[in-house]
Structure formats: C-alpha cells, structure tokens
Amino acid sequence: MVFSSLLFLYAFLPACLLCYMAAGKLQTKNYVLLAFSLFFYAWGEPFWVILMILTGLFIYWAGLNINRYRGRPQSRFYLILAVIGALSSLAVFKYLGFAVDNLNLITGLHIPVPSFSLPIGISFYTFQTLTYAIDLYRGDTKVQKSAANFLLYEALFPQLIAGPIVRYADVAEQIDNRTVTYTGLARGISRFLVGLGKKVLIANYAGQLVTRTLGAGLEKLSVGEAWMGLLAFALQIYFDFSGYSDMAIGLGRMFGFEFKENFNYPYISNSITEF
How far is CA 189 from CA 17, 116, 120, 166, 255, in A? Predict the structure, then answer.
C-alpha cells in the first residue's frame, strides 16, 4: 500500500483518522495508531511483519538493560548486542545471497544461493531502532518503558516505508505527550496534498516520459530526445523523493507528530557532502 493509492486515500487513512480521533486518552490513541501501522505494513508483508515486531522488541529489551546498567561495562555489552543483532538481520536479507554467490565463484563450490524476498522498509526500521539504542547509551534520550510505545516509534506508518528516518530523541516526548488540534490537522492535510501532487502530477508523468525516451534504448534517440529523457529522470527522482517526504511529514502532523524537514534543495547543494 502506497500513499498515492486509492485504497490508502479512500479507505485506510479515513478509517485510521476516525478511529484515532474517537479514541480517548493518548495511550489509547497510541494503541490505535500502532494497530493501523502494523496492518499497513502487513498489507505488503504479511509474514515479515513478524520480523519487524521481533526486531523492535529485541532493541526495546536491550534498551532496558542499557539503562539498567548505565555507567557499567554491561551497558556497553547490551549496546553491542543491539547493534550486532539488528545489523545481522539486515545483512542476512540484503547480502547473504551476494556473499554465497561470490564464495561459490571463488572456491568453485556449489552452495545453494538462498533466495527470499527483501522485507519492505527493513533498512528504515533497522536504523531507526538503532538510533534509540545509541542515543540511550550516550545519554541523549530517556529509556522508553512501554513496549507498545516503542513499537509505535518503529512501525509508525507515515515514515515506515520511505522515511524520513526519525531519531528517537526527536519524537520521544511526542510519543508520550502530544495533542492533535484542528490547526495541526489542517496543516498536515495541506502538506500531504502538496506531496501527493508532486508524486501524482509531476513524478509519475516524468517517469512515463523517461520510459518512452531512455527506456527505448539510447542508440535510437536523437540528442534532443536523450536530453529530454535525462531532464525528465532528474525531475522524476526529485519530485518522487520530495513528494513522499511531504506526505510523510503531513501525515505525521495529522496525528500530532512534528517530523524534521529532511529534503532541503539537494540539486543546489554546494558540495557532495551537503548533497
């Protein structure tokens, strides 16, 4: 399910907003938002949603121990355990097949190359949960004692699939204490619609132009057509990322979250580092 799909716009989002507004206390709202976020992820990954939940619970448990043994060697041990555990899962899914394939090539062995689908958003939620463990160890944030609230931070659907990656320290207070106002809801809807326009009206059409030009093969294009395809590709990439960022930030505001801006005119960067 993507933000620009009719299913999301006319079914999922209205149902989520209605249930969220109908919930009473903030903790109840958090439970509602967590349930919808897990459903949102399970729609695309009905099996690997279990991996996301287990990853979150593992980092949550490690965080409790990092805080418990603060100032002692055991605290660093649990930090290392959290980093190794989270990155091991990422390495298995993204690089195990590549490693086995190259091992066979170098040694002449015939080890079966594992083949499985890459869980959606695994890089996003892995690094997001790791920011919590690292910031907690450094003393930059407080421990989260509620497993449900920590899973909400990991699985929050506005930024789960395409980012932005949100540091726990930036939203820790908002998870436990935030309010939803009509002004914030209106600002969120407005920002979401801007992003939706960028995605549907510009990025998608630019993508079609790229397919008709560059997709046809460079040897068949004139110089003008090639340049048109390159410019269309630049527009497609820019407005796709920018649009999804706007939609994520807008969705967050609808539920009382203020995500940091993360897309600051990359095409006029003064250096590669700034880009």
Answer: 11, 37, 26, 20, 11
Name the token pair of 9: 């716009």
Helix (H) or strand (E) holding 85: helix 73-107
Amino acid at 152: L
If phi > 0 it is left, if psi is from -120 to 50 it is alpha, else beta; for residue 144 that is beta
Please tell me whether the peptide bond between 119 and the residue prior to it is cis, using omega within 30 degrees of 0: no
Contact 259, 202 (CB under 8 A): no
Q: Are 180 and 21 in contact (CB under 8 A)?
A: yes
The DSSP call for residue 214 is G
AA letter at 59: I
Q: Give every CB contact of residue 59 below 8 A, 6+ residues apart in sequence.
A: 82, 85, 86, 129, 130, 132, 133, 150, 154
pTM assigned to the model: 0.83
Q: What share of the chain is helix, strand, coil (3-state, %, to 5)?
A: 75, 0, 25
Distance between CA 253 and CA 251 in Å, rounded? 5
**pLDDT by residue for the chain (275 residues), tens digit each?**
788 889 999 999 999 999 999 988 899 999 999 999 999 999 888 888 999 999 999 999 999 999 999 988 999 999 999 999 888 888 888 777 777 777 777 877 777 776 777 788 888 888 889 989 999 999 888 999 999 999 999 999 988 876 667 788 888 889 988 888 888 899 999 999 999 999 999 999 999 988 888 877 777 778 888 898 899 999 999 999 899 989 999 999 999 998 888 777 888 888 988 88
C-alpha 271: how far from its chain's center? 26
